[in-house]
Amino acid sequence: QIALVESGGGSVQAGGSLRLSCATSGFPFASYCMAWFRQTPGKEREGITTISDFMHTTYADSVKGRFTISRDNAKNTLYLQMDSLRPGDGAMYYCARGRYGVCPTKIADVGDWGRGTPVTVSS
Fold first, then answer.
1. Residues 85, 17: contact at Cβ < 8 Å?
2. How far apart are CA 27 and CA 2, in angstroms?
3. What CA–CA distance (Å, rounded) separates 3 from 115?
C-alpha cells in the first residue's frame, strides 16, 4: 500500500525557516519524480517544486531562491527546506508522487498524495 506522510509544518514568523519531510512507502521511491504542492482555502492546489529521479529540480517563481527540494533515496524520504518565509507562504503543504515518468506540476499529473502538513507564517 502506497503511503506518503508529511511532517514538519508549524507556525513561524516572517523571515524564518521550516523543513518539511515526507516519508514514503509502498513504491520504488527512487524511480519516481516527486513534488511539493500547497493550497490555501478557496484556492486551487498549486505545484511549487519538483525533483526528478535523477535529481533535476524545478521551482515555481514564487518560491525560487527561497525553497529547496531534496530527496534521500536510501530513506525513501522527500524534503522541502523553506527559508525567508513570507505570510503568503502560509498554506497546507502536500507531498506528491508523480505518475510514472511524469514530474507533477499540476494536479492531473499526480499519482498519489500525502494528507498535508500546515504552515502558518505570521508578519
1. yes
2. 6
3. 10
